[in-house]
Please model this.
Amino acid sequence: FVIHQVAKKRHRYPPGPPRLPVVGNLFDFPASYSWLKFAEWARQYDSDIIHFDIFGIHFFVLNSADVVKEIFENRSQNYSDRVAAMMAQLTGWDRNWGIAPYGDGWRLRRRLFHQHFRPQAVTAMHGEIKKGACALVQMLLDDPRDFARTVRNVSGAVTLNILYAMDFDPHDDARMEAVDKALHSFMALIQPYLVNFIHPLRHIPSWFPGAGWKRQAAVWKKEVDALFEKPYYEIKAAAQAGTAKPCFATSLLSDNWDKLDDPEMNEVLISVLGTAYANSDTTIFTMRGFVRAMVLYPDVQRKAQEELDRVVGRDRLPDISDRDSLPYLAAVLKEVQRWRPIAPIAAPHMSSADDVYNGYFIPKGSIVIGNTWALLHDPTRYPDPDTFNPSRFLRADGTPDPAVPPPEEIWGYGRRACPGRYFAADAVWSYAAHVLAACTLAKPRDASGKEVEPTEEHEAATFLIPKHFEVSVMPRFDGAEKLVQAACEATE
Ligand code: HEM
Model:
């Protein structure tokens, strides 16, 4: 208690870059690849917790597994809130309960989501995932030119079929494009819009010079509202007419049948379903990283394929029930996500009350960031961390090494940790296993026969989502295409 009072009184913050009056560290804030700068500050100031502030808003970055465990796990009650982003409200993205404040509304949505996405419930989705995995390899072998789009269509179709029984065909590019349009604005929200810091700006009229962001927000709002509302009202009408196929939506509707006239309950269900769709994009990004790693490291690809040949053979495609018998493949997927985690700083949390950690004061309303990158590139946990080496997770006999921590931090932290992880892990495993079983991935060659390297660039500076790159996809053995064809037919 005494330490608490002293730290609070003196406002002793953890070390960090020196600040300027009023603006604080505005000019130090790394707009891109921030996790690298945060890790560098942690080394420079010799502290696994660092601090900076912007216009009086306090930021704390946690750079080690120990401090993350203490703050996000042991004190999760205090570190599970989110920052209210004004731009999210203006665009309608505040329906995504992943950015909702910590409270009853969030709790109810998370509970409804979890009932259908806990590990046992996800088993019921394996049929749809398998169907998607077969379609994925078939489409890749047919036309490998834009694998990122193929992955998007398949993953989107699987999710929409599970959520709303949409009967989505992944070949239907135009329909997918229309549904997907709104998702792009979610990524754009990450930009540091001034209105997020200075809320009264929202009252500026749209025609005002410099208020382009407000006009943009209004355009996005229409798309975002449609993304959340359209499929919900369609499936609700079908359920009420007795014609809906079973899916996550029908199950939510039937659990709440007597409350469907209540606008608040409709709002909850719209938010639960739409959020599941919006957040499932991460599966697509993970697959892009996987394909890039396989193209860059053909020896790893070959080794995983040898394991598949040994365990599954070439007469059938792998099934999720094979997962435990394929430890090298599991290690490859762990390493893909450790080496280049798609969300290197997860999603920032916000503290709900004043706190003291290790003698440092953390005021209420602070933004607290877990530096996932730093944890997954900590040389004491993962020696030679920048090297892509799936074998680091295995013992000499090829079995999983329990002494090496799996990269659990990719799912975020504490009470806000990703609730879609069981579905995501099963889907990613299935897609990756199918691709490796049936296809050989390689760098394509340009007109002069020279190999084209996949890009090192990323879509947004706040995530590690590889930008578009070309890949050559070939059937891995004679008969692979036939096998895929038969597997696809069997899932219909
Ligand atoms: C490989 C794929 C995925 C990765 C790497 C991933 C990662 C994450 C991360 C880092 C967070 C933030 C956690 C935090 O604040 O500490 C998160 C939150 C969330 N994820 Fe995922 N995710 C994936 C797939 C999915 C899928 C497929 C769904 C839905 C079906 C989903 C639904 C959510 C939701 C709803 C939240 C917000 C949770 C909350 O704020 O309480 N995720 N995810």
